[in-house]
C-alpha cells in the first residue's frame, strides 16, 4: 500500500522561481524538494484490481437517451400528450403546424390504433389543390430534439402510421428540410394515399429518405395539397448508421466505448424512482414493439421519454460495450418520499424477479421468451442488481427483495443502498452503493482516503456516482477533474474493497433544457466533446483487471498523490507499468520514480507520458474549443527504473513504462 512520510521542512522556504512553461501559464514555482515514489515491481508483489473496476453510468437525465445516445430523430413521435402523463391536456409540442388556420386545422383525438397510446394527431386540410393550397402543401413539421442532424449521402428510415378520410386520392409528402416550407430541402419521399385502399384504416407507412445535403438543424415535414382529414401516429425517423444497427448514435457510443467500461449501471439515478412512484421507470412498459410502448414522463428530470430506449436496449448497449449490465430497479420508494408499505411490496419484488428473467432467463421462460421475440434469444450476461437508488431501505423490506432474488437466482450479486463505508451494514449484500458529490474540488481531493478505514469484512464498495459539483466545477473544469483523479487514485489504492466505480452523469444535451452540470460528455445534434472529467476516466481505463503495485510516496508536498499499476496494453499486448501522478498545486513538483524488483528494465522505446493540464485550472472544454483540456501524449525520453520527472502544476500525468 502507498504510505506517506512528510518532511518537517518549511514548504515555502524550498520554492524557487521557475521559467513559465506554457504561454500565459501559471506563475510557476518549482519545489526544489524532490519527492520520491518507490514502486515495488517484483513479479509477486501487488494484487489484482477487480476486472469490473471502471464502468459507466447511464441515466436518462439531460436528454442523455431521448435526444442523445438513442438516435431517434423525432421528438414526441406519437404520444401527443403534452409530456405529463395520462389525464393532462394533449399537446403536439414540438410539432408545428405548416399553414394558417384557413388552410389547416390540427388537433388530437383518441382514435389511435395503439391501445396503450390512444392519442393521435388529426389534421383537417381545408385547402384543395394548387389553387388554394401553398405549392409546398400544408401539414406538420417536427424539429427533433433541437434540430435533426441530417448528413449528405446518409439514409434515414421513416416509419409512420396514417389514416385518411377523403373523397379521392390524397398526396402525402415526407421531406427533410432546413427550415419550414421546404427551404433547403435535403430529401423528400411521396406517397399517394387513396381512400379506397387500406389508408381508410390505420396503415403503416415505411420508406427510406436519402439526404442530398447536410443540415444539422433539419426538420421532418409531412405535407399534402389535398382536402382530407389525416390522422398520424408513431412517426419515427432513425438514421441507418447506428452502432450495429442497434439504434445508438455513433459518435456518442464511441465516446463511451473509449472509456472501456467494464459495467454499465442503468437507467438511473432518480430516474428509476420518479418524484412520484407512478412516474418511475417501469421496465415492462419499455419493452416489445416500440410503437406499442406508452412512454412516460420522467418527473424528476422533467421531460417525456417515448421509452424507445427501454430496458432491452439498455441491456443491448451494455453488451455492445462489452460491459456487464447493472440494473437499478425501483424498490417501492420515490424521490418525493413515497414508500409502499409491506403489504404492497409484492408487485415490486415480482417486477424485479421478472426483470431478471427477462434479462437472463431461458428463451422458453415467460419473460425470456419476450426477450427472444426481440431477437435476442441468448440470455444477456446479467449478474448484478441494485435494490433502488439512494434509498437506504428499512431492513425488513430490503430482506424481502434480497431473499426472493437469492432464492431464485443465488448467483446474482445484490447491491444495497445503505452506506457501509464507516460502519458495517446490518444486512447482507454483495456490494453497497456509495455516492459522492462534493461542492468543491478541495473537498473531493481530500476524499482520497475515504475508504482507508472501511471494514474489509463486509460487502464490497460500488462508487456508482461521483463528481465535483457547484463551486469550482462549473460545466466541468480542469480543477474538478484533477480532484476526481486524486479520488480515483485513492479508490485504486483501496481496490481490495472498492470493486466498481463510475462517474455521474454521463451525458448532457447542451441544446436541451438540462438539469445537471457538470457531466462527462457534452453534445448537440451533431457534435460531442469530453469534459476534463471524461478524460480523467480514460486515464484509468487500463486499471480494470490490472495489478495494483505497492508503492510508497515520500514527499513534503500535500498537493501530490500517486499510484502504480502493471497492465497488458490492449493496443500492443505488451506489459506496461503505469504510474499516475496528480499535482493539485500551483508549483511544479519534482518526482523521483524508482522501480524495484523488475525482472527486466524499463525500456525507453515506447515509454510515454500523457499529461492532462491547461494554462488555467478553471479551463473547460466547449464546442468551440473541444480540445482545450485533453490528454497530450509524448515520448518519455528519460524512461528508466530510476528517473526524475517534473510534474506540471494542476495536472494529472500518466507515465506508461514498457517493461
Ligand atoms: O447523477 C444525478 C443524480 O444524482 C442521480 O439521479 C441521483 O442518484 C443522484 O442524486
Automatic annotation (TrEMBL):
Q: What molecular functions are annotated in GO for this chain?
A: alpha-L-arabinofuranosidase activity
Does the keyword field hold Hydrolase?
yes
| Pfam families, sorted | Alpha-L-AF_C, ASD1_dom
Gene3D superfamilies under this entry? Galactose-binding domain-like, Glycosidases, Golgi alpha-mannosidase II
InterPro entries, alphabetized: Alpha-L-AF_C, ASD1_cat, GH, Glyco_hydro_b, Glycosyl_Hydrolase_51
Listed EC numbers:
3.2.1.55
Q: Can you tell which superkingdom this protein's organism belongs to?
A: Eukaryota
What does the UniProt keyword field contain?
Hydrolase, Signal
In the UniProt record, the signal sequence range is 1-25
The first-level EC class reads hydrolase
Task: Tell me what reaction this enzyme catalyses.
Answer: Hydrolysis of terminal non-reducing alpha-L-arabinofuranoside residues in alpha-L-arabinosides
Q: Report the record's Gene Ontology biological process terms.
A: L-arabinose metabolic process
Show where the Alpha-L-arabinofuranosidase C-terminal domain sits: 464-651
Q: Where is this region: Disordered?
A: 606-628
Give the compositionally biased regions (Polar residues). 606-627
Q: Sorted alphabetically, which PANTHER family does this protein's record hold?
A: ALPHA-L-ARABINOFURANOSIDASE 1, NON-REDUCING END ALPHA-L-ARABINOFURANOSIDASE
Q: Which family does it belong to?
A: Belongs to the glycosyl hydrolase 51 family.
Protein name stated in the entry: non-reducing end alpha-L-arabinofuranosidase
Q: Which organism is it from?
A: Arachis hypogaea (Peanut)
Amino acid at each position: 500500500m502507498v504510505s506517506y512520510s512528510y518532511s518537517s521542512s518549511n514548504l515555502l522556504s524550498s520554492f524557487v522561481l521557475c521559467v513559465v512553461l506554457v504561454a500565459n501559464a501559471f506563475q510557476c514555482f518549482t519545489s526544489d524538494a524532490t519527492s520520491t515514489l518507490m514502486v515495488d515491481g517484483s513479479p509477486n508483489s501487488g494484487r489484482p484490481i477487480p476486472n469490473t473496476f471502471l464502468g459507466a453510468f447511464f441515466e436518462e437525465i439531460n436528454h442523455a437517451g431521448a435526444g442523445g445516445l438513442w438516435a431517434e430523430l423525432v421528438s414526441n413521435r406519437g404520444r401527443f400528450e403534452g409530456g405529463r402523463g395520462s389525464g393532462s391536456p394533449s399537446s403536439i409540442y414540438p410539432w408545428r403546424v405548416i399553414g394558417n388556420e384557413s388552410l389547416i386545422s390540427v388537433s388530437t383525438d383518441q382514435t389511435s390504433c395503439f391501445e396503450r397510446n390512444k392519442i393521435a394527431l388529426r389534421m383537417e386540410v381545408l385547402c384543395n389543390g394548387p389553387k388554394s393550397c401553398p405549392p409546398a402543401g400544408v401539414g406538420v413539421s417536427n424539429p427533433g430534439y433541437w434540430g435533426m442532424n441530417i448528413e449528405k449521402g446518409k439514409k434515414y428510415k421513416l416509419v409512420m402510421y396514417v389514416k385518411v378520410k377523403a373523397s379521392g386520392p390524397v398526396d402525402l409528402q415526407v421531406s427533410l428540410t432546413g427550415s419550414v416550407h421546404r427551404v433547403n430541402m435535403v430529401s423528400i419521399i411521396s406517397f399517394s394515399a387513396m381512400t379506397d385502399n387500406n389508408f381508410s384504416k390505420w396503415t403503416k407507412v415505411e420508406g427510406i429518405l436519402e439526404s442530398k445535403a447536410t443540415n444539422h438543424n433539419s426538420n421532418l415535414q409531412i405535407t399534402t395539397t389535398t382536402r382530407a382529414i389525416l390522422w398520424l401516429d408513431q412517426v419515427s425517423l432513425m438514421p441507418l448508421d447506428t452502432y450495429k444497427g442497434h439504434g445508438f448514435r455513433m459518435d456518442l457510443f464511441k465516446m463511451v466505448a473509449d472509456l472501456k467500461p467494464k459495467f454499465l449501471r442503468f437507467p438511473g439515478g432518480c430516474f428509476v424512482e420518479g418524484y412520484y412512484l407512478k412516474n418511475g421507470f417501469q421496465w415492462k412498459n419499455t419493452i416489445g414493439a416500440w410503437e406499442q410502448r406508452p412512454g412516460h414522463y420522467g418527473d424528476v428530470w422533467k421531460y417525456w421519454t417515448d421509452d424507445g430506449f427501454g430496458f432491452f436496449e439498455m441491456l443491448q448497449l451494455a453488451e455492445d460495450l462489452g460491459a456487464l449490465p447493472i440494473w437499478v430497479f425501483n424498490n417501492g420508494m420515490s424521490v418525493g418520499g413515497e414508500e409502499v408499505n409491506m403489504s404492497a411490496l409484492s408487485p415490486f419484488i415480482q417486477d424485479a424477479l421478472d426483470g431478471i428473467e427477462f434479462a437472463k432467463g431461458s428463451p422458453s421462460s415467460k419473460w425470456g421468451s419476450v426477450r427472444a421475440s426481440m431477437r435476442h434469444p441468448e440470455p444477456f450476461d446479467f449478474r448484478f442488481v441494485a435494490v433502488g437508488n439512494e434509498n437506504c431501505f428499512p431492513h425488513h423490506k430490503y430482506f424481502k427483495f434480497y431473499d426472493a432474488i437469492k432464492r431464485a437466482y443465488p448467483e446474482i450479486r445484490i447491491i444495497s443502498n445503505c452506506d457501509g463505508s464507516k460502519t458495517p451494514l446490518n444486512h447482507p449484500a454483495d456490494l453497497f452503493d456509495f455516492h459522492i458529490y462534493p461542492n468543491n474540488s478541495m473537498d473531493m481531493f481530500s476524499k482520497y482516503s475515504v475508504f482507508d478505514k472501511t471494514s474489509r469484512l463486509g460487502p464490497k464498495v460500488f462508487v456508482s456516482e461521483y463528481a465535483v459539483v457547484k463551486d469550482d466545477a462549473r460545466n466541468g473544469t480542469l480543477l474538478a477533474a484533477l480532484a476526481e483523479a486524486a479520488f480515483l487514485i485513492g479508490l485504486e489504492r483501496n481496490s481490495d474493497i472498492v470493486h466498481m466505480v463510475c462517474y455521474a452523469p454521463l451525458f448532457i444535451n447542451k441544446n436541451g433544457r438540462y438539469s445537471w452540470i457538470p457531466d462527462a460528455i457534452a453534445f448537440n445534434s451533431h457534435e460531442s466533446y469530453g469534459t476534463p472529467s471524461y478524460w480523467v476516466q480514460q486515464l484509468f481505463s487500463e486499471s480494470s483487471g490490472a495489478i495494483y503495485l505497492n508503492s510508497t510516496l515520500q514527499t513534503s508536498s500535500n498537493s501530490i498523490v500517486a499510484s502504480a499499476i502493471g497492465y497488458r496494453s490492449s493496443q500492443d499486448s505488451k506489459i506496461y507499468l503505469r504510474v499516475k501522478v496528480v499535482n493539485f498545486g500551483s508549483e511544479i513538483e519534482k518526482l523521483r520514480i524508482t522501480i524495484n524488483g523488475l525482472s527486466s528494465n524499463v525500456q525507453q522505446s515506447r515509454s510515454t507520458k500523457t499529461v492532462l493540464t491547461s494554462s488555467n485550472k478553471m479551463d473547460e472544454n466547449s464546442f468551440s474549443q473541444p480540445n482545450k483540456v485533453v490528454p497530450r501524449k509524448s515520448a518519455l525520453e528519460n524512461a528508466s527504473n530510476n528517473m526524475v520527472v517534473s510534474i506540471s502544476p494542476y495536472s494529472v500525468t500518466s507515465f506508461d513504462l514498457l517493461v
